[in-house]
Automatic annotation (TrEMBL):
Protein name as annotated: MurR/RpiR family transcriptional regulator
Highest rank taxon of the organism: Bacteria
HTH rpiR-type domain sequence ranges: 8-84
InterPro entries to which the protein is assigned, alphabetical: Homeodomain-like_sf, HTH_RpiR, RpiR-like, SIS_dom_sf, WH-like_DNA-bd_sf
Amino acid sequence: MNPDDAAPEARLLRLFEGHRLTPAQRRIAHCLVQHAAQAPFLSSVEIAELAGVSQPSVTRFAMTLGFDGYPALRKEIRGLGLSDAQASGEKREDTSLSEPQRAVLAEIANLQHLAGLLADMGPVARAARLLAPSRPLLVLGLRAAAAQAAGFAYFASKVHPEVRLLDEGGSMLADRIEQAAGAGATALLCFALPRYPAELMEALSIAREAGLSVVTIADSAFAPAAAVSDILLPAAVGTQLVFDTACAPMMLGRVLLESMVDEIPGAEARLEAFEHSATERGVFAD
């Protein structure tokens, strides 16, 4: 796929790929993505205020990306057509909506943003090729991300010969990762959602030290797990309610699994065998 054909948001994220960013610079990058429609018109001072950093930090961020300064970066961002893409579907917020209604609409917007990123399936395809051959395949998710990891592992086990779910922390987590690597595992899929547990970062470091490739689905391309991941696939979480919602990360996980099916020998036959067995045993009521 031609990079110029990708969604504007995906092209914006591509500006930041391959660069080692400091925590402050990750905040700036995340801020630009969050305010993509306004980014082409914001000054470095305004970006600094939004990101909670100093104005010189914004200048250094632009130079880290290879630009002479922030004006050159802003010119590049303007060329992505972000404001036009956002404006074409922009609607005024309806003040008559309830809090739950606004939360649902925000989640829909997250899914629409994900749909734009998936115009370029390259990163997902590369992740599928890393994960599919791993025997066993490790799926990691702690605390808020445990449900996402469990859902992925449940469905993946129907097409992959051996899936090991890692959804509890503690000293045994390192043991299980090292044991899986010793048994032949080559890759680990991680779900990293806020708030990020410190032991998650420790587990990913252990996985890398054990020689495993790490693919991470996170709420942002600038999540801490990005520093120890071979591939990071972003999908935003909803923040309108007291507790975050994670429809987009769940959808991205299913899209990734769909791509993996094509890379796993015998996946279709394994799924058909499960369905036949489930029918024979009366597993489901329908």
